[in-house]
Amino acid sequence: MLRKLFSRRTNHRAATSNSGESLIEAATNGDLDGVDQALAAGVDVNCGASNGATALMAAALNGHDAILQHLLSRGADLTVRDELGSTALHCACLHGTPKTVELLMAAGGNVTAHDKKGHPPFFDTVHLQNLPVLRLLTNKESVCLRNDEGATLLQVSAALGKFEVQRFLAESGADLETRNLGGETPLLSALSHSQAAAATYLLDRGANPHVMDATGASALHHAAWGGLVRLCERLISCGLDPNAADSSRQTPLHIAAAKGFPTIQQILINHGGSSMLKDDMGKTVGDLEQEAVGQRRMTEELRLLRALPAAISLTDMYQLSVLFNERANASGVEEENLSHQVRFVLDDLVHAYQTDPDRAGLNPAMVAPILEEVERIHSGEIF
Hints:
The radius of gyration is 26 Å and the shape is globular. It is mainly α. 39% of the residues are buried. The chain folds into 4 domains: 1-128, Alpha Horseshoe (Serine Threonine Protein Phosphatase 5, Tetratricopeptide repeat); 137-207, Alpha Horseshoe (Serine Threonine Protein Phosphatase 5, Tetratricopeptide repeat), CATH 1.25.40; 209-291, Ankyrin repeat-containing domain (Serine Threonine Protein Phosphatase 5, Tetratricopeptide repeat), CATH 1.25.40; 293-377. The chain has helices spanning 2-5, 21-29, 32-40, 55-62, 65-73, 88-95, 98-106, 123-128, 131-134, 139-144, 153-160, 163-171, 186-192, 196-204, 219-226, 229-237, 252-259, 262-270, 285-291, 293-307, 314-328, 332-355, 368-377; strands at 311-312, 365-366. The two termini are 36 Å apart. The protein has a two-stranded antiparallel ribbon.
């Protein structure tokens, strides 16, 4: 998004105006002569575009280090923010190089400044898994940096499933037990965000499975919420109680029922989970099951979609696409009938591809787009 803010092209001959557009454009394009022309014409080095973006931000975003250093020598202000609350250091961490980030840090760039999303600069590097930039932080800074929700870089990487960043931070000494404002540790965040690999890694490194968040929800509650089948089994083997209740008097079994996760429900029941306990609304597991019919349907659809090969024939994909589109525009009894039809077709296709692996033909269609669309609404159970 930030790159688009600087994408407008202007004529450098307009550098004699004081609007600042010529300065920002020159910094965006790496045009040192254009920068000097604009400054010589009296353009303020800290002037901003309509969105608040400055020439320093443009140079940082695009990795034009010579221009960045030149602007700093001419008084460019590291603390100026654009309309998103981003500083030049935020811009550098978003798309810049390690050298650019290092230059801004050496010049006094604030690694703790929060943008309007509540994120310090280095949190953007987690999304991009930019390890060379992250390595510029000291261990102490890595541990102490938090966003407005109190989450550390390790916690965010675990929740997002950015495994390489998570491993780097953990191996660099990041505390596995730090908590955000909701009392969640990185392990609890990974579990509730359905990040099985992240949660497994943290447990293997010694993360405490017996922690609870600020509502009294255990790791087993979070795993049930995230639909993580094997991790529910592992946490039970660690001694977590399937009947432990949070502040809403909900047990992990209540959570699994409300999310429409029948496999996890059965695991919890097999290990002593009670279906008769009531939450603070007076609801039993059976009550929540009745309310979660749609969730259970989507859990089953996801199970079948994930059982298909990565690509299926164009004919089969067309059949599925028509059914999904028809159901999206239906309601009531018609929607329910189409949902049954979807499950019958998926079940038949899973069996067909298990019987005939070559059914997809020479020009197959990828299943991922349909799978991703359903997963946006419901994560399903993850085995």
